[in-house]
Amino acid sequence: MTSLHLAVALDGAGWHPAAWRAPDARPAELFTAGYWADLVTEAERGLLDFVTIEDELALQTASLHLPDQRTDQVRGRLDAVLLAARLATLTSRIGLVPTANVTHTEPFHISTGIATLDHASHGRAGWRPQIASRAADAAHFGRRATPQLTSEDVQDSTLIAARLLELFGEASDVVETVRRLWDSWEDDAEIRDAATGRFIDRDKLHHIDFEGDRFRVRGPSITPRSPQGQPVVTSLAHAVTPYEFAARSVDVVYLTPHTHDEVVTVTAQVQEAQRTVGRTGTPLKVFADLVVLLDDEPGAAAGRTARLDELAGTPLTSDARIYTGSAAGLADLLLDWRDAGLDGFRLRPGALPHDLRGITRRLVPELQRRGAFRTAYTATTLRGHLGLSRPASRYAVPR
Fold first, then answer.
1. Residue 312 class from Cβ within 10 Å (0-12 exposed, 13-18 middle, 19+ buried)?
2. Which residues pair with 97 in a beta bridge?
3. pLDDT, tens digit, for every residue of 234-264?
């Protein structure tokens, strides 16, 4: 049986809006490095491929498209890239994939940040590019306006993608620029020969000369080529436009099907997107996202969810499938969906640390018993965990 890939998406106290009020939550520690260190080291103990760390350019909101004034939910977060760099020194195997916005952040800054993370983690860095879907985010920068989603738009992923089409095009340019910057130093550009006084071979540093509709970047990067050469790029997608962005630009895409039949449908759409954009070489890795609340005692997870719903004042909703139940039941679901065409899963713990431990201490052993998940890390880099080879720099000339 082919081993599946498992990742977890970490966000604040968990993906349930009331998770910070759960009995075992740690709300006083959400903005401390120690809290995040505990979460990521727990994920590494579970042998997970990687963790993703959420980020945004504005305070969290209960609405997809508008800010709110609520005070009963977690607001505020640490910078994901900087946090990942701190966590790199406390872990040794698990991949670290922070979110970084591409609409209001310079590609050069993203490239150096993620490349630095790859150096700090010895090859375990990834990146989730994210567009600014809320027009209000632009007010923090004052450089441009972005489209305002309407209440009708947010009911349909296709309408959202259509409204944000220009931003997806720009995002493709950003990822391409970042990738070129990662390649702009050849692997052996550093000489470091004190005797001759030569630190670098200037012929092995390259101008990338990218020119798009919104920006130009000459390069080269200030950061030498990192251990993976190209850190892993991932994205979340709900409709054809983001499927095509993923097919054009990233290594791993997260989808949000709710049923086995939807897995078949959306994976076929992703395959079609790869054909549409002419993707060649390594096929896109396809993961499904699920929000999970895990307890092995019958009815315990549903009861815990109901209590959190009562605290929140409304039932939990999500773009992704919400699973409440036992680890064995979740293993059944994952293996069924895997057989429908998925490479892996990104699980969103409903409440932290409870549901992360449910993943690492109950789900992982259950999958291991079924021969569906690793019993030890066999690679040292994130690309290695995912079975992706290390690419050569596009600018390297055979010598």
1. middle
2. 52
3. 999 999 999 999 999 999 999 999 999 999 9
Region of 219 (left: φ > 0; alpha: ψ -120 to 50; beta: rest) is: left
Q: How far is the C-alpha of 58 from the C-alpha of 43, rounded, in Å? A: 27
Q: Is the peptide bond before 353 cis (omega within 30 degrees of 0)?
A: yes
DSSP type of residue 278: T
Tokens of 119: 């150096």
H/E element, 200: strand 198-200
Count CB atoms within 10 A of the CB of residue 221: 22
Could you write out the three-class secondary structure of 15-26?
Answer: CCCCHHHCCCCC
Say if residues 337 and 288 touch (Cβ distance below 8 Å): yes
Q: For 313-359, how does the pLDDT look when each residue is reduced to its tens digit (9 = 90+)?
A: 999 999 999 999 999 999 999 999 999 999 999 999 999 999 999 99
Structure tokens, 272: 């079609």
Over residues 360-371, the mean pLDDT reads: 98
Per DSSP, the three-state class of 163 is helix
Contact 283, 250 (CB under 8 A): no
Q: What is the 8-class DSSP label of residue 204?
A: G
Q: Determine how β-strand 344-349 pairs with β-strand 285-294.
A: parallel
In whole angstroms, give the CA distance from residue 116 to residue 101.
17
Query: Do 93 and 380 meet the contact criterion of CB atoms below 8 Å apart?
Result: yes
Dihedrals phi, psi of 336, to nearest 5 degrees: -65, -45
In this structure, the chain runs to a length of 399
CA dist 393 and 178 (Å) reads 13
b/e 272-282 (16+ beta carbons within 10 angstroms → b): ebbeebebeee
| Residue 303 and residue 327 in contact, taking contact as beta carbons nearer than 8 Å | no
- Positive or negative, the CA dihedral 92, 97, 98, 100 is positive
Nearest to 237 by CA among 202, 274, 183, 184: 274
DSSP structural state of residue 125? B
Q: Specify which residues 291 forms β-bridges with.
A: 322, 348
d(CA 293, CA 316): 11
